[in-house]
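User: Predict the complex with D-galactaro-1,5-lactone.
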Amino acid sequence: MWGRESPSPLAGEGWGGWGEGGHLKTILITGAAGDVGSHLRRELAGRYALRLSDIRRITKPTQGEAYVRGDVARLGDMLRVTKGVDAIVHLGGHSGEGPWKDILRANIVGCYNVFEAARRNGVPRILFATSNHATGFYQRDERIDHRVYPKPDSRYGLSKVFGEQLGSLYSDRYGLQVFCMRIGNVNPAPVDKRRLSLWLSPRDLAQLVQIGIEHPGIRFEIVYGVSNNQRTWYDNSNAERLGFRPQDGSEPFAAAVLAREKSSNDPIAETYQGGTFCRAEVGGDPARSYPRRRKASRR
Ligand code: 15L
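Assistant: Here is the predicted structure with D-galactaro-1,5-lactone placed in the model:
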């Protein structure tokens, strides 16, 4: 839950988990069995009725949660799991770089199915978990906002750009309310130097998600899902405009993180925000990567 120490910046504005007619809103989380989904379930517990969907089984849904198995790559499944919900938090899909066939199935087809099922079932709002990897080929000495041209660093990043643009289409054409969160890295603490710049604490994630669910008048927005990190690469003024006031920051962890980190000697990973996602693989095998010296390109 947000603002455990300090009060929610939205407290007092009457935002809660209640929908029209006084029912507790039902929120579908796709990919609910993953890391981000697990943090979110814990943080949102009690605020909403949570419908948890995943291709993997969730064995112990708690009170206020219901598990419904669903494969994002099957439109029929998505039509079933999206029925009657107030909003969808779409986390499902492949959560890192992978072979094209996996990205295509889970992230391109999967994302289309979720948006299309939402449209057919009249779900008004989707929060899409896009990623810092949609803009991973910006350099670390650049500060970027939500209006920059996407520069995906991987097939995975490209699939996130696809999802954002799908959201734009569904917003303009069908009036779906779409909130795209370019998530950094969700973890209880930042795990390395790169993550000091893009860490997102679980409670800040929950705050951002709650804004995405509750803020009135969302049409189509892109925000960065990052905590209040001093070493940030992002101008997150669009999230701030919508009320985001992250409670955590990575700096208190910095000394310990930097002390245990060995220098990577990888000029590509060190130059770009996306880190190792920016490396090109050798030959045809996406599992084999090597750092290549290349002049930084700018658009
Ligand atoms: C992401 O988008 C991934 O889903 C996550 O697994 C991390 O790799 C994260 O980015 C990151 O950049 O640290």
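The mean pLDDT is 91.
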